[in-house]
Amino acid sequence: MIFHRLVLALLMLGSAFVCEVAAEDSSVAHERKVAPAVTAEIALAPDLHLLCIGAGAYVVRHDCPFLCNSVLVEMPDGTFVFGGTPGFPEAARLVLDWIVREHGRRPVVAIDSGYHFDNLGGNGAFIEAGFPVYGSDLTVRLLAERGERMRAHTLGFIPDQSSPYRAAHTALRFVPPDHVFPIGDGLTLRFGGEEVRVIYPGPTQAPDKVAIYFPGRRLLYGSCMILAGDRPGNLAEADLDHWGDGIRLLQPLAVDAVVAAHGARLDPGLLQNTLDVLAGHVASAGRAP
Does domain 2-286 match CATH 3.60.15.10? Predict the structure, then answer.
């Protein structure tokens, strides 16, 4: 058993090394390709993993206690960009520590995808470290107006009073982004000639969800507006009349990989899956009991 574990650890280390080398290899760096498949997995904690999906691109998978995804992308100038954040600042610090340990001290930029905890829960760690956090004006307003309501709603999913995750959610300090943009304008950032686009497709799963698009990677992080399963999930603030319109606005984007906030699928078919799940939910809700 010990031998098997050692072999597995060496294989994972080798995969991680290949992932890192690909990010630095000048023969492929100009393409920066991603794929809807995991090529290496790095465990930072029992509930926190980095999943490499291409040259310098990772899904940050955080169980807190439900599965939450954000993305981490190394840009050509060495900056690491977070699309969304881990759910808690402690998890964000572990990722920041990994960046320093594996790459040295680098600039880091975070982009909040909405006001829910799984879109910005790591903000405190980034701001504490002196890194900019971008978010929309609507996200700032909703966090101030509805943050505690959102906390209570989240705690409702963790009925076990002794759960360490319930304690963590209770203690979580909501920190707004410190670089604010008008949500209707979206945002474009550039790092070493490569763009990151923040797109607001209108109200979807919540009023302020934005998608984060890396056109040079053909990578789209859709946060909670993208559905990776067969159910629509949390509909407490959903705009079912316009959600589908928002997804159709994103469909023309050139993508090889799509990351949802929850779920393991990473393929471009997630956009159509979201429309299908929404259509099924509306049809089901419209049937007579």
Answer: yes
